[in-house]
């Protein structure tokens, strides 16, 4: 056996061998599996993330390994495209090798089949009929046609051969599907970023990684207008224009010039009554020299604009430079609040009492629909919020997220401010109780007072119980006690209860710790309460008449907030008090001529697939021989790919023929 | 005698000539339905949606012509749904007070009925398999039909309810994981019922219905634990006529592949039992291997055809919504993987002539690949298809 294989290989030329290899089913299946595995890698490993994220995730060694294998961008890696290319070649070879055979098979009725070959077929039946051969043929034709067969009759010396077939669709389907795959892949490759890849490898283009204005991007990172195929994005603020798009590429971007200008008049979000967004839409004007008048068009998700082979999609939105009015509440030192006006995405120099910082507002959203924590509704709009970074002179930055309106929780209202040190963390929120005016003023005054040692000491002295004078007659002693109380507050503000108990642990013998701690706690709360009274008195309330339920709750919340205030390690709280909202729309601009191939290819694929499965090819032969009233009939058919289905079809055919041509069986 | 025979075979020549009066009544009824829907709701539809509803009518006509049982089913579902809708009138509140709605036909009630009936049907199919009582088999089949009917009624009524809750919220209920699980169950059951009738065997029923019962279990968990049954407005990306064709086509694919896997399982079971105890009662009860092999092939072919269609429809939709017909989004990529897997399966079967045990194993493996594409992607991978998330 192996000898014969070897000899047949030797007799083939190299080209023929290559073609045989490329067109082989084994290669095709291997390639299918390879594409599938590569695809799986691409979904498991998140693609096209910023490189630093991968370094953090995999470490520098594996990062380099994965990068050299192009695993961060599998689908446009050279090796993946090569596999796809081979798949196209293999399928093409397959088409070229098999199409002539298939076409011949479709046309051919195989009426010259030999009796011996027919006898070897899986299904056959032999019987006699009292009709003449001609009538038999006529009736066979009728039955065959009724069942959808087409047939030819061949007369030979002693016999007539009826050869019938139907359902050539499955064979055509084979050709259609395979041609379709080739067409789709070619279209896809045109629209893929193969040309970019080549240009980058030959150093014709260079990826821009710096964060600079588009006008300063060098020509080597700019793609010309005649670029046939790309997918870029551009964010345009309301009232502004752009004639370019950015293409994300590797660890940077490229600038794609457009032959027209896109102006954004307005961007809108419509909401359902429940608060979730219903539609995103932009009013665009296209200025193009080829147009007689500027083109006005509103685009929305699922309704893009097509212009000269370019398609413009609504893909995202963001802030287009809103101006925010912000009140600065210093968290240490004086109770003085300044007001500033800062613009989103424009750095703002903040000079605080002791430090200089840069405020970078990252985003502003006027409407925020979140799951409703009170559970009354599923979603709730919790009002405007903005996200910002405070960058110290050293370059270190902390990120914040603040809400303009208080949020209700367990029957009370709080201002939320979240903080995190790296983007990988979740925001940790600080709940500031809202005062009766729905502001943060009272809390800020409370906090400022707790930071003001001079005033605290005064309060401490006046807060000493009247009896104290009897056992602390000396002013110096009272001074010392007041000093201690202020110190306690200081520890509480700067380190919470934790710091106080740590100090107690360090200074007091273990058996006394419990006692001292509870004493300290009593003193602390007594004093805090007195400070709070002063705050209330400033509002011209009289705490002596008793605290209202609201004020009591506020006190508890305020103390809780102060106790963790040291974790909010910046000297200022930003209170959003007003805004002038300006939106920007995120557009995707694409040009994909490949779809002129891909879409027809898809149609061909669907037609082909359905033909292939639902128009199975069937053949049968009847050999009619004998004389006038003693006709011999021999029916033969070969089972196809669905034995069970075929069985039914065959027995129906046999029964119909027997019914029409007499039932005298000879077998 | 000769003449009548002649007449018999000559009149059966053309597809249209073979239609009897019932066929034409069926056709007419569907046309009337479509025309009525168009006249009542044309202002809610764009051009594409009008084309879709007309095509749906045509597909239903053709479907009823080749499979007569489905006519009765469709008529029943339509009448019951219309009755439910008429009970509702113009306010959603009646769903909590009206007897028929509250206990039977409000979408949530109907879906609970569907769930219960499918579980009962599964048990009855297995009972039938083990006892071989003609009555139990008929009961199992009826239960499956009833469950499927309740599922369809549930979805159709839910469609109406979404409009009753708020006109702007109204949409076809194939927009989230909860709704597509119902769709999956009823489509799989319908495909199964077709094969059951065509091959005249009920012994695969319990196995196929097991998958559906698993889907039902998930559905119940999802309802109780996550209140997934609450109707939510559509996110803007889903607000498109494409959803009406892309999602159902996809679930014909998923349903067929699941069915093929279960039939593959029966194939392996039967093969094993034939080797171990060829005379055993259960061995005799299971369908013959060639039949199972054939059903498996047919199901995968059907699934593959519709999955191809669905993926292409998805690509066309993506070209309109996401800015490109192919973005290598995890869902797209896994759809490709599923497609490649079954393409390889079919190649092996059609050109290499592979049959039997390896193909049965492969179809079971294929089920897990499909399951991951359907659920796993939403659970473990992030991407553009995030609205299908758990």
Secondary-structure blueprint:
The complex is a heterodimer of chains A (667) and B (390).
Chain A: H1 2-10, H2 14-22, H3 25-44, H4 51-68, H5 78-107, H6 115-119, E1 123-129, H7 133-146, E2 150-155, E3 159-166, H8 169-191, H9 194-201, E4 222-223, E5 230-237, E6 241-249, E7 252-271, E8 277-287, E9 295-300, E10 305-307, E11 310-319, E12 323-330, E13 338-343, E14 348-351, E15 356-365, E16 369-371, E17 379-381, E18 385-392, E19 397-403, E20 407-409, E21 412-420, E22 428-433, H10 441-451, H11 453-463, H12 468-471, H13 475-507, H14 510-538, H15 549-563, E23 572-580, E24 583-591, H16 595-614, E25 618-627, E26 630-637, H17 643-660, E27 664-665
Parallel strand pairs in A: 4-7
Antiparallel strand pairs in A: 1-26, 1-27, 2-3, 3-25, 5-24, 6-7, 7-8, 8-9, 10-11, 11-24, 12-13, 12-23, 14-15, 15-18, 16-17, 18-19, 19-21, 20-21, 21-22, 25-26
Chain B: H1 2-11, H2 21-41, H3 47-66, H4 69-88, H5 94-97, H6 99-105, H7 107-131, H8 134-165, H9 177-199, H10 205-226, H11 242-276, H12 281-285, H13 289-321, H14 330-350, H15 357-380
Question: Brief description of this entry?
Answer:
The complex is a heterodimer of chains A (667) and B (390). Chain A has 667 residues and is α+β, with helices and mostly antiparallel strands. Chain A has 17 helices and 27 strands.
Features:
heterodimer, A: 667 residues, alpha+beta, TATA-Binding Protein, 4 domains, seven-stranded antiparallel sheet, 17 helices, 29% strand, elongated, disordered N terminus, B: 390 residues, mainly alpha, 3 domains, 0% strand
Characterise the protein shown here:
The complex is a heterodimer of chains A (667) and B (390). With 667 residues, chain A is an alpha+beta fold. Helix content of chain A is 42%, strand content 29%. Chain A folds into four domains: 2-104, no CATH class; 113-167 and 616-665, TATA-Binding Protein; 194-228 and 230-320 and 584-591, no CATH class; 445-574, no CATH class. In chain A, helix 7 (133-146) packs across helix 17 (643-660). With 390 residues, chain B is mainly α. Helix content of chain B is 77%, strand content 0%. Chain B starts with a helix and ends in a 10-residue tail after the last helix. Chains A and B meet through helix 3, helix 7, strand 8, strand 11 and helix 16 of A and helix 1, helix 13 and helix 14 of B.
